[in-house]
Write a structure and sequence with these properties.
five-stranded mixed β-sheet, alpha/beta, homodimer
Chain lengths: 211, 211
C-alpha cells in the first residue's frame, strides 16, 4: 500500500513531470527542426523590413496549422509607438485572423528573445509554443533577465525552443549595430571636422582683423 | 581620508539611495493625494465603461502636465484582442498625442494592478510614475506575482503608488464578479429547470404511450 504523499513531495513530483514534458517536447521539435527553420526564415524576412527602415531588425510570425496567420516587424521609431514591436504586431494580426484573443493552437517564431511586454503579451494570448532565434542577455524576458514564458505562478506557460537559426538572427543584430556605430562614428567625425573648420575660420578672421 | 569602497558596499549604498528616493517620492505623493484621486476617478469612469460591456471593469488614464492625454478601458472580449487591455489602449492614445513612443514625463493611473504585458508596456514606454487602485494578488506584476515596474535589472524603473481609491476600485471588481456569479448561477438554474421540464415531458409522454 502506498503512503499518503506530503504537499512538498507532490510539488517535487509536479516539477519533475513538467521538466520531463519540456524535455520530450524539445526532443520532438528538434526532430522537426527543418520545418521550424522555414518559419523562422519568414521571421527573418520580417526583421529585414525593420532594418530597411533603420529600425532594430526584429521580426516575428505566428503559425496556425501550418499557415502563417500573423506577421510583424519592429517599427517603434517609425510609428512612434512602444506597441510597434514585432511580436505585438503579429499577435494583433493573428487575433484578427482567428477572431479570438486566445491563440491557443498557434506557434510564435521571433528572431530575438522577447522583452517583458512581448513575453507578457504571449502569455496573455495563451500561445503554447514559442521559437526564439537569438537571446537578448541584457533585456530578454524568456530566460535572460526573467523567464515570463515558463513561469509556473502564471495561469499559462509556453513551451520555449531557443537558438533556432541562431547564427543568422544574431548576425542580423550584430550587422545592424556595427553599421549604426560606423554611421554614428562618421557623423561625429563630420561634426568634429565642421567644428574644426569653424574654429580655424574664426581664428583666421581674428588674425586678419588684428593684422 | 576615506578608503576605497568595495563593489558590494557600493551596491548597498545604491540600494539605500533608491529606497530613500522611493520613500521621499511616496511622501510627496501622499501630500498631493487629493489631486491624484481626481485622476483615479477618471480611471474609474473608464472602468465603468468596461463593466457596461460585460467586461472585467478595469480603467486607465495617462496624465501629462495636469492634462489627460490617454484614456482606456478593458475591451478584451468585445474586441477579441489580447491587446485591448485598459493600459495598452491608454498608452497607444498617449503616444499618438505626444508623437513619441517615450512617455517620459507622464503619470499612469490604473484601477487594478497591471498584468505582465501591461507592466512591460509601462516600462517599455518609460512611464516614470504609476498609481494603482487595488492589487491583483493572483496575477499582478507590480508587486504581487512579480514586480516588473521597480526591477533594477531593467533599463527603466517606475515609481509606484499603491492603494489610491483602493476601496472604490476593489468594490468595482467585487461587484462585477458577484453579478457574474449570480448570472451564471441563474443561468445554470434555468438550464436545470428546462432539463427537468424536458425529463418530465418525456416521462409523461412515455406514460401516455404505455397507457
Amino acid at each position: 500500500m502506498s503512503r499518503i504523499r506530503t504537499e512538498e513531495e507532490k510539488q517535487v513530483a509536479r516539477r519533475m513531470t513538467r521538466e520531463k514534458q519540456k524535455e520530450d517536447w524539445l526532443q520532438q521539435q528538434e526532430e522537426k527542426r527543418s520545418g521550424h527553420e522555414r518559419y523562422m526564415k519568414e521571421a527573418v524576412k520580417q526583421a529585414k523590413k525593420a532594418a530597411a527602415l533603420g529600425e532594430v531588425p526584429i521580426g516575428c510570425v505566428i503559425v496556425q496549422e501550418g499557415k502563417i496567420i500573423g506577421r510583424g516587424y519592429n517599427r517603434r521609431n517609425t510609428d512612434k509607438s512602444t506597441l510597434a514591436h514585432a511580436e505585438i504586431a503579429a499577435i494583433r494580426r493573428a487575433s484578427r485572423a482567428v477572431g479570438d484573443w486566445r491563440l491557443e493552437d498557434c506557434a510564435l517564431y521571433v528572431t530575438l528573445e522577447p522583452c517583458q511586454m512581448c513575453a507578457g503579451a504571449i502569455i496573455q494570448a495563451r500561445i503554447p509554443e514559442v521559437f526564439i532565434g537569438c537571446m537578448n542577455p541584457k533585456a530578454g524576458c524568456a530566460g535572460s533577465v526573467y523567464n515570463l514564458l515558463e513561469e509556473p505562478a502564471f495561469n499559462h506557460q509556453a513551451h520555449v525552443f531557443r537558438g533556432l537559426l541562431e547564427e543568422e538572427c544574431s548576425q542580423l543584430m550584430k550587422g545592424f549595430f556595427k553599421d549604426l556605430r560606423l554611421r554614428t562614428g562618421r557623423e561625429s567625425q563630420e561634426m568634429a571636422k565642421t567644428e574644426r573648420r569653424r574654429e580655424t575660420a574664426k581664428t583666421e578672421g581674428r588674425q586678419e582683423t588684428e593684422s
